[in-house]
Structure formats: structure tokens, C-alpha cells
Design goal:
The complex is a heterodimer of chains A (442) and B (328).
Chain A lengths: L5 E10 L4 E10 L2 E5 L10 E4 L4 E4 L1 E6 L13 H9 L2 E6 L10 H14 L3 E7 L12 H6 L4 E3 L7 H13 L4 E4 L10 E2 L2 H6 L3 E2 L2 H17 L3 E4 L4 H12 L5 E5 H5 L21 H12 L5 E3 L27 H10 L5 H6 L3 H4 L17 E11 L18 E11 L2 E7 L2 E3 L11
Parallel strand pairs in A: 1-4, 1-5, 6-7, 7-8, 8-9, 9-10, 10-13, 11-12, 13-14, 14-15
Antiparallel strand pairs in A: 1-2, 2-3, 5-16, 16-17, 17-18, 18-19
Chain B lengths: L31 H16 L13 E6 L5 H12 L3 E6 L7 H13 L5 E6 L4 H8 L5 E7 L5 H15 L6 E5 L6 H12 L4 E5 L15 E3 L2 H5 L4 E4 L15 H8 L14 E3 L12 H4 L6 H19 L9
Parallel strand pairs in B: 1-2, 1-3, 3-4, 5-6, 5-8, 6-7, 8-9
Classes of the chains: A alpha/beta (442), B alpha/beta (328).
Amino acid sequence: MIAQRYLISGGRFIDPANGVDRVTDLAIADGKVVAVGRVPRGFKTATEIDATGQWVLPGLVDLRARVRPSHAEENLVSVSELLAAVAGGVTTLVAAPEDGVLMDSSAAAHRLQQHSENLGLCRVIPQGALTRQLKGDQLSEMAALQRAGCQLMGNGRAPVGSQMMRNALDYAANFDLPVVVHCEVPGLAQGCIHEGATSLRLGLPGIPAAAEEAAVGRDLALARLTGAQLHFAGISTADAVQLLANAKKGGLPVTADVAIHHLLLCDEDITGFDVNYHTRPPLRGASDRTALCKAVRNSVIEVICSDHAPKSAATELLPFAESEPGIAGIESLLSLVLELVRNRRLPLERALSAVTASPAKLLQGSRGQLAEGAAADICIVDPGRAWQLQPASWQSRGCNSPFTGRNLRGRVTHTLIAGDLVYRLSGDRTQFPTINDSTVRT
Amino acid sequence: MSSRSLASPQVDVQYNADGELHHLLTTEGLRRETCERIFALADSLTETSAVKKLPVLRGKTIVLLFFEPSTRTRTTFEIAANRLSADVNVVNVATSATSKGESLVDTVETLQAMQADMFVVRHAQSGAADLIARHVAPHVSVVNAGDGCHAHPTQALLDAYTIRQRKGQVEGLRVAIVGDLLHSRVARSQIHILQTLGAAQINLIGPKNLVPKAFEASGAEVFHDLRSGLQGVDVVMGLRMQRERMGGGVLPSDREYFHYYGLTEERLQWAAPAAMVMHPGPVNRGVEIDSALLDSDRSVVLEQVANGIAVRMAVISLVLGRSWSVKS
């Protein structure tokens, strides 16, 4: 397809990476941003998108999202989840190493990228498996995985012993490969909910905050020992934030992310056995939530992710402890980030940076920003638009969200990837101009 | 079941729109007048123990669905339902490790087709009865006979009933609960009902690993020392210690436990003069309570068992919307 020329006019253009926030026009041609502000003569032949009253942002970069629902028949990528991504303004996402097909061979990495490229929706970057079959006993062929397009390595939530982790980090450092770590000491994490008053009330086995703190402590020590670049995924506790803050103050070049739901919910919100509140790590205490927001504000935690984990409805029929943890949330990510801004938890620029420029820094290329010459991955959001979150009417096949029924403000109206308009909200109807597929919900 | 069921707001599922008790899942949020109504019904039964069988629930079908072994609770529910003339089916579902989750909702769906009016459920997972209550047909009631470590409401009701029998009322009493609070569904349900009925003080006593300080969020007070916890209490409730937790994994030995937390006649002196001793059974003699105390007139353990039938009859008939009046 030959990318069209677009003129996005009259919007408030916010590009945190380049420190830009002003009302201006954007000219797009050949898949790139060709002009910001000073639109060249003769560009009038372009299709105009009137963005008056709207915000024009770099497309969102989601470091942690699953591209297929649990128990889905597809083994690579579900189109539903990529439609969900672009409907949420996400233009690049990183798929987990255990997502769908195990990402421990270059063939798997090639297939995932080829398949998602063919769909022409969100860009999908595979996260390579740190160890073979994620079993934690043999290193994967990291360099081969890197050549095949894996820009990050990680072992998902599967535990890695200390000696193995040390080897893996040493080895990854040879190739400047960032390693994503999920921090939880397995022996301390046999519960399903944050250990505290709520776990005691419901009689559910708890996971103490110390399970995370102890694991973050080990991996920070190993980062110092090996010089590897570590990214701490899904930080959930105030104690872990403190450890990260101290390490960063000492000059250790580590990064971290938090899932959006950990910034908005805490264990006190779990009043009954609603499995939509079952997450891993668990929703922590109210003071943890406050500390996490502060950490994002201060860039101790640079990145906010959706941690999108769509589940089929059948898993809701299990008792809480036996249900699969996770929340489907890629379509609500930006709206919920804007809620944090509205509630003065986060300043606008930092909040937007946490879903664009900051995650992009961990990836190659120059995503997450819109300087002239950059790929035209763009998200346009109507900041005042009210909508109600109803998984029954969104694109993702996952219906597991504790935010169901929540009234949100701010909704993505257009998403462009490499200059192609892939998503448009027209009235209340969602449209995917590049997709001709009966599976699209409108 | 809808394929895309939506998260429902956490409404109290126990009561129907008319404020009647439709399910009994937990004593948390159970209204005081509901408790009093159950006690009054149980009273009228114990007064007329000569009447063995009441024709109250003729034509009703009650399924006892036990995913976890139980003798005492299952038997008393069975007797209670039989005395009310209901048709009773006992289903013991062996939970295989492979298909634990599926079998729960699947089994309930199958049994519902058999025209059950009530499920009495015991399951090893906290929240199992709640889950079933949210998925049965609207006319079907669920009574929780114990779910994981969460709740055992009929046990708590019969305990409160037994206290009331001996002490006149629960209001104003000081109560101690001793033992493995962490894993006890009985204790959780007792705390809620004692608070609802106006107990003046609830002391939770046991070693730190079985009685975490965070329990105080419930409004009760935590003690790791038996003597200070028993100080001046009117009721002492012992809890069953699971043998598998006594072999060194959680506690070093039952001997060491008894040394610090075992109830004896001598230690009961620390409590109020006429303090009564309770235990949900089955008792490990010499671990939670020594034999002499258990067999003394301070102990009401056998009364608890007898009251279990009356209270469960009261619960079943109230939930199924059929109360009776017995005339001598």
C-alpha cells in the first residue's frame, strides 16, 4: 500500500521527547513526519484530519502486552488484540517471551514479526527468551535472537536461579541486550493476593511485599556485578521503589515499569472474590500505590505498561486462587493514564512520556517521538470525550477488567502507523480502514 | 452463563431484593435480625425435640455438595434436611488435581438440571460458595458449609447460639479465640458474627505465624501470649490444629504448641470466673485442650454438636422461605 499524505491540522501537538507542546499542524508523507508547523506549499493535496480541540501524540509504546488471549486457538498473534492495540493508540508493543509461541528460536521471532507485519496493525517486537524454553537451566542463543529482531531478553515470570541469572546477565551484556526481570522470590510468592488485611479477611493465601523486595535486591546486586542493563518489570511495592531509587542514585543504569492498574487500584478494592482483580504481582496496599505514583512522577519508574493479558470468559468460572491472573487493558491504557493526570497524580508531560518516549528508549529506532523525519506513528486523542469502559464492546477478546463500567474521559480517535490511518473513531463507530475483516467489531 | 459475563459490582449477594436471606455464604454482612431469627427458629426446635420430623420442606431437593471430606458438618446438614422432610442427595466430589476448577462449575451445572432447590457446598478454595451462588439459577439457594480459609457461617451461627444458650446473650461478652487463626474459616466467621451480635471484646491468641498482627484490621485484638489474651474473658473458643502444620513446617511440634497455647483447667483461671470453653471439633485432646477440661462442665463441645442440627434446620428453612410454628 502506498502511504497517503496527511495533514493533521489544528491539534495540540505534544511530543515529550522533544519538549514540544503547542497548537500546530503536522504534515505526513511517505510514512514519515515531513513537517511540524511549517507545512510546505503544495501539501494541500493531502487528506486533512481536523484535530482542532484534540491532542496529537506520538503513538504509544507498550513494553508489556500479550498478543493473544489465553487458550486462544491462534498460536502467534490474534488480530483482535492488535486491533485492540491500535484502538488504544498503541503503535508499538513488546510481546512477552511466553506469549503464544515460546520465543526461544530465531524462527519463532521471525514468524511472529512476519505475521504481525502482514496484519499491518500495531508493530510487534518479540522479547527473546533468556533461557531455553524458559526453564532456567540453559542460556538461549541470545545473539541469534537479537539478529532475528528481539530487542529485549527476559524469562517472563518463570524463575531463574541466582547462578544462572548471573551467567545470563554477563552473556547478555556482551551484546548490549537489555534484560527484563520480573521480581518475585518463588518460595515467598505462593499466594494469589497481597498479604495484608484483605488477604486475611478473604482467607486467601497472601504474597508478602517482601517477595518482591528480596528479588529486586538480588537482581540489583547482579546488575552491579555484571554491568548488564536491567529493566525491572511490574514493580508493585514501595519497598522495591526505595531500592530502585537508591540504586539509581548510586549511578546504576537500571530502568523500571509499572502496570497501569497498580497506579489506580489497591488491595482494598478487592471486596469479594471477583477474579478480575486477580493480578500478578497482586494489587498491593494503598501506600504502595501512592509510592508507585510518586516513583513515576520522579522517573524512578520511567515506564507505564498496560500489562495487557486478555483471558477467555471461561477462566472467570474458577475460584479466585485457581483463576489465571491478569487484566485486559491495552484499549484503556491511555484513558486511565489521563485519569491519573486529571486527579493530579501525574503531570501531563511525564505521564505521556511514560507511555511514549520512555519505553521507546529501551528499543531501537526512534519511536515514541515525532521530530521531522521520524516514522509517522501517531495517536490522536479527544481529551474531553467521555466514554464508559465496557469490554463487551471493545476489540480485545479479553473481557477481564476490574475497570468495567468505569466512566472515562479522553478517547483515542485516530491511530496512524508509518503514515497509514489504521484506526478511526467516527461518531461511536470504530473503523479500521486498512483491515477488511469480518472479525472487526464496529 | 453468558460468554462475556461482566464484572458485577460487589453487591451483597446473600439477600434478595426483598431483603430476605437467599444464600448463606458468610457471616460478614449478615444482619443481626437474621441471626436472631435463626436463633428463634432453633429455639422452637430444641424446645420440641420430641417432634423428630417436620413436614416443612416436603418436595424440596437439597444437594450436599462436598468437594472436601467432612463427617460432622455433612452429617448434621443431612440430619437437619431430613428432619425438615426434604429430599437429600449427598455428592462427594473427589477433587483431582488436574481438573479442580472445571469440575466445580461443571458439577453445579449438571446437578442444577436435577431440580435442586439448594446446594450445601464445601470446597477447599476460598470463594467457591460465592462463585457457585453467582452462577446458579435465580431460584436456587446456596449455603456455604466451609470454603477454604474464608468462611464457615453455620458453624459460627451455632457457636453464637450455644453462647447465647449458656450466657443469655452475646452482647457485652468478652471472647477469646485461640489457635491457628490464619487457616481457620471458623474463626473468620466467628469474628464477624460476634461483632454483629455486640461482643464487647474479641481477643485472638496464638503464635505470630498463625495469628498475624494484620488481623487487628477486623477490630479484634491480637495476643501472642495466652495469659494476657485470656485475661477476664467470658468465652474461650479453641480451634482445631491441623496435624500437617505441626510437624516442623509451621510449628515445631504439638507438644511445644500445647506448652504455650494448650487450654487447661489451671489456665482457664486466667479468664473470668464462669468462663465457658468451646471447640468446633474434632478435638485433638492434649493439643488444643487437655482432656480434663474438655470433659468438665466448663466445656460445651457436645452442646455445640447438638445445636448444630437445630441451627442448620433453622438456616435451611429460613433460606428456603419456609418457617414453621410448632404447637405443643
